[in-house]
Amino acid sequence: MTFAELMIEVGRWATVGIAVVMILIGLFFLFVAAVGVLRLPDVFTRSHAVSLTDSLGALFLLGGLAIYQGFTTNSVKILVVLMLLYLLNPVIAHATVRSAFRCGLRPGSSDDDDVLV
Predict the structure, then answer these.
(1) Any stretches that span the bilayer, and where are they (predicted)?
(2) pLDDT for the residue numbered 107
(3) Which domain holds residue 59?
């Protein structure tokens, strides 16, 4: 094995390592979002927790997948999905909270009043 081949192999393993770490960080944030949905009391706090951690989890998860794929058409598709998630996630969270507010729910209400769950 020549030195150039060795450096290519080391670079390939480093890329896979970075991708795996990013995917694990993304999965952690998505797990925290799921716990937030289960633990927080009303739709407003749940939406807040999910919108923040979901965006961060998607960034790391999809970024890790794009790095793992390398420069291919699949990585371009993954980056397009990531861009759409970043554009649409705040809009979806805002629409959810606004519809809950228009239905008569107020922040700090108890679970008995939460009809969207």
Answers:
(1) 12-38, 50-71, 77-97
(2) 83
(3) 7-103
